[in-house]
Design a protein that fits this description.
This protein is an all-alpha fold and about 230 residues long. The chain is about 45% helix and about 5% strand. Helix 4 packs across helix 5 and helix 8 (about 180-190) runs antiparallel to helix 10.
């Protein structure tokens, strides 16, 4: 319990003291710079396939940071790639030659768009006892209360009960995102394959004790989460 409370307080504190990422983009200018992005992410940031994230309404500071991190990884050479930015092989070459203002404008454009909800499914997941449990109920419990027994903090501390995130703190919207994408990212944070969550390792510390069943359940729940929940 102490572990859970500690990291929940850390997350809540970050909402107050984390300066976020400076971004001062022009969404109208960004609209002219995203043509190549549409094939994977859709013209308005609503990706047509769950292998690619929806970018619409994720928050300008968060989007700008991710673009900067992906660009940094792409530019890195040799062994430096293991410790630089964010590794997204599918983005190789896509941001080379883009200026900082270009990245800010692209982030501003996608942040100004409306996300289409993916929705959640009725399903069961198998927990450690071998029991099949309702995935929506488990997902909601993890999202709103975490798992005190294993030290998993609640998601609401950073991403809010509505799932809309905290834009000034660069915590992205989660509600409505593709469950498959959320699941993939949680697994990547848990495995240490994604490391661009800051020196405090907030997402890695959150994900490290999540079970496979909990990851699938919370990702599914998030897919149907919206401001009206």
């Amino acid at each position: 319990m102490k572990y859970s409370v500690k990291h929940l307080l850390l997350a809540l504190g970050a909402l107050i003291v984390m300066p976020g990422v400076n971004a001062d983009g022009d969404p109208e200018a960004g609209a002219e710079k995203v043509a190549v992005c549409a094939a994977c992410h859709g013209q308005d940031g609503n990706s047509p396939a769950p292998d690619f994230p929806k970018l619409a309404d994720l928050g300008e500071p968060y989007l700008y940071k991710q673009l900067k991190d992906i660009q940094a990884w792409d530019k890195a050479q040799g062994e430096a790639k293991a410790t630089t930015g964010r590794a997204v092989p599918q983005m190789t070459g896509q941001l080379i030659g883009k200026s900082d203002q270009d990245l800010q404008d692209i982030a501003a454009f996608y942040a100004s768009q409306s996300m289409q909800l993916s929705g959640a499914e009725e399903m069961t997941v198998q927990i450690y006892t071998g029991e099949q449990v309702n995935a929506l109920e488990l997902g909601e419990r993890i999202y709103r209360a975490g798992n005190p027994e294993t030290g998993v903090p609640a998601c609401v501390g950073c991403h809010l009960p509505t799932g809309l995130g905290n834009e000034p703190a660069a915590f992205p919207r989660l509600g409505g995102q593709y469950p498959k994408y959320i699941e993939t990212q949680l697994r990547a944070f848990r495995a240490g394959e994604r490391t661009n969550d800051g020196d405090q390792m907030m997402m890695r510390m959150t994900a490290k004790n999540l079970s496979d069943a909990e990851i699938k359940a919370v990702a599914n729940y998030i897919g149907g989460l919206n401001a009206g929940n």
